[in-house]
Amino acid sequence: MFVSFENIGQVCATFHCDDGVAVGAPCSMSRTGTVGASDDEENFIGVVESIKNNYACVTVRGFVTLPYSGTTPGIGYCTLTGDGAGKIKVCVDGNSYLVAAVDTVNKTATILL
Fold first, then answer.
1. Rounded CA gap, 95 and 73, in Å?
2. pTM above 0.85?
3. For residue 50, what are the contacts with CB-CB under 8 A and spacing of at least 6?
4. Which end of the chain is more exposed for a tag (fewer CB within 10 A), N or C?
5. Burial classification of residue 76, based on how many CB atoms lie within 10 Å of its CB (0-12 exposed, 13-18 middle, 19 or more buried)
6. What is the DSSP annotation of 47-97?
7. pLDDT digits (tens, 9 = 90+) for 39-89
């Protein structure tokens, strides 16, 4: 049997976006109605799904799969932030997310925003 978390509970919102925002990467609020790339140790609000004409479609709720750097996230609730390079990382101070799956070969984690 195959387990999939894709699109479960997904909610997307449209924001203006700063330069440096990348599809598939975590993003953070940079100012009112605008997202920017997540800096190292910065809390992220979601994942950029698409960009068009300086607007970003951002998944702000639901399951997403993101690349991680550093320590492998544990299954269950884990404190995560951006790593400043388009990935997420385990940290001491940050938001807690439910980690439902970890792929150590591809270094990705499926989390619930």
1. 13
2. yes
3. 23, 56, 57
4. N
5. exposed
6. EEEEEETTEEEEEEESEEEEEB-SSPPPSEEEEEEEBSSSSEEE-SSSEEE
7. 999 999 999 999 999 999 999 999 999 999 999 999 999 999 999 999 999
